[in-house]
Amino acid sequence: xxxxxxxxxxxxxxxxxxxxxxxxxxxxxxxxxxxxxxxxxxxxxxxxxxxxxxxxxxxxxxxxxxxxxxxxxxxxxxxxxxxxxxxxxxxxx
Length: 93
Ligand SMILES: [Zn+2]
Ligand SMILES: [Zn+2]
Hints:
Blueprint (H helix, E strand, L loop, with lengths): L1 H10 L12 E2 L6 E2 L4 E6 L2 E6 H41 L1
The structure holds zinc ion (2 copies).
One zinc ion (ZN) binds next to loops.
Protein backbone atom coordinates (compact mmCIF):
# COMPACT_ATOMS: atom_id res chain seq x y z
CA UNK A 1 0.00 0.00 0.00
CA UNK A 2 2.81 2.36 0.87
CA UNK A 3 4.42 1.50 -2.49
CA UNK A 4 1.21 2.44 -4.30
CA UNK A 5 1.03 5.66 -2.33
CA UNK A 6 4.59 6.43 -3.34
CA UNK A 7 3.92 5.91 -7.06
CA UNK A 8 0.81 8.09 -6.80
CA UNK A 9 2.92 10.91 -5.37
CA UNK A 10 5.46 10.50 -8.15
CA UNK A 11 2.73 10.97 -10.77
CA UNK A 12 1.94 14.39 -9.30
CA UNK A 13 3.92 17.41 -10.40
CA UNK A 14 6.89 18.35 -8.26
CA UNK A 15 8.22 21.85 -7.65
CA UNK A 16 11.15 22.55 -9.99
CA UNK A 17 12.93 24.51 -7.25
CA UNK A 18 12.75 22.41 -4.08
CA UNK A 19 11.04 19.17 -5.16
CA UNK A 20 8.00 19.64 -2.92
CA UNK A 21 4.51 18.88 -4.17
CA UNK A 22 3.61 21.57 -6.69
CA UNK A 23 0.45 23.61 -6.20
CA UNK A 24 0.29 24.73 -9.81
CA UNK A 25 2.22 25.82 -12.90
CA UNK A 26 4.04 29.12 -13.17
CA UNK A 27 2.14 31.65 -15.31
CA UNK A 28 5.37 32.58 -17.14
CA UNK A 29 7.33 29.37 -17.77
CA UNK A 30 4.61 26.81 -16.88
CA UNK A 31 6.95 24.77 -14.69
CA UNK A 32 5.31 23.27 -11.59
CA UNK A 33 6.02 25.21 -8.41
CA UNK A 34 5.08 24.78 -4.76
CA UNK A 35 3.53 27.45 -2.56
CA UNK A 36 6.91 28.42 -1.10
CA UNK A 37 8.65 28.90 -4.46
CA UNK A 38 6.05 31.05 -6.16
CA UNK A 39 5.11 34.69 -5.78
CA UNK A 40 1.80 36.31 -6.55
CA UNK A 41 1.97 39.10 -9.06
CA UNK A 42 -0.82 41.29 -10.30
CA UNK A 43 -1.20 41.59 -14.06
CA UNK A 44 -4.11 43.91 -14.70
CA UNK A 45 -7.24 42.59 -13.05
CA UNK A 46 -5.89 39.06 -12.65
CA UNK A 47 -3.53 37.71 -10.03
CA UNK A 48 -0.83 35.39 -11.34
CA UNK A 49 1.40 32.95 -9.54
CA UNK A 50 4.90 33.00 -10.97
CA UNK A 51 7.99 31.07 -9.87
CA UNK A 52 10.93 32.76 -8.16
CA UNK A 53 13.04 32.46 -11.35
CA UNK A 54 10.48 34.38 -13.38
CA UNK A 55 10.11 36.88 -10.55
CA UNK A 56 13.86 37.59 -10.77
CA UNK A 57 13.62 37.78 -14.57
CA UNK A 58 10.77 40.29 -14.40
CA UNK A 59 12.85 42.32 -11.94
CA UNK A 60 15.65 42.39 -14.50
CA UNK A 61 13.27 43.43 -17.28
CA UNK A 62 11.99 46.22 -15.03
CA UNK A 63 15.55 47.52 -14.75
CA UNK A 64 16.03 47.36 -18.54
CA UNK A 65 12.71 49.20 -18.81
CA UNK A 66 14.21 51.99 -16.75
CA UNK A 67 17.23 51.97 -19.05
CA UNK A 68 14.84 52.46 -21.98
CA UNK A 69 13.27 55.43 -20.19
CA UNK A 70 16.72 56.92 -19.55
CA UNK A 71 17.56 56.33 -23.24
CA UNK A 72 14.42 58.14 -24.32
CA UNK A 73 15.47 61.12 -22.21
CA UNK A 74 19.18 61.02 -23.18
CA UNK A 75 18.64 60.77 -26.97
CA UNK A 76 16.67 64.08 -27.34
CA UNK A 77 19.21 65.82 -25.04
CA UNK A 78 22.09 64.58 -27.24
CA UNK A 79 20.22 65.69 -30.38
CA UNK A 80 19.60 69.08 -28.79
CA UNK A 81 23.29 69.39 -27.88
CA UNK A 82 24.23 68.50 -31.45
CA UNK A 83 21.85 71.19 -32.77
CA UNK A 84 23.34 73.75 -30.35
CA UNK A 85 26.89 72.90 -31.52
CA UNK A 86 25.82 73.20 -35.18
CA UNK A 87 24.09 76.53 -34.54
CA UNK A 88 27.08 77.98 -32.66
CA UNK A 89 29.36 76.97 -35.58
CA UNK A 90 26.98 78.63 -38.07
CA UNK A 91 26.94 81.80 -35.94
CA UNK A 92 30.77 81.82 -35.70
CA UNK A 93 31.07 81.66 -39.50
ZN1 LIG B 1 9.33 24.75 -4.10
ZN1 LIG C 1 8.40 30.57 -14.01
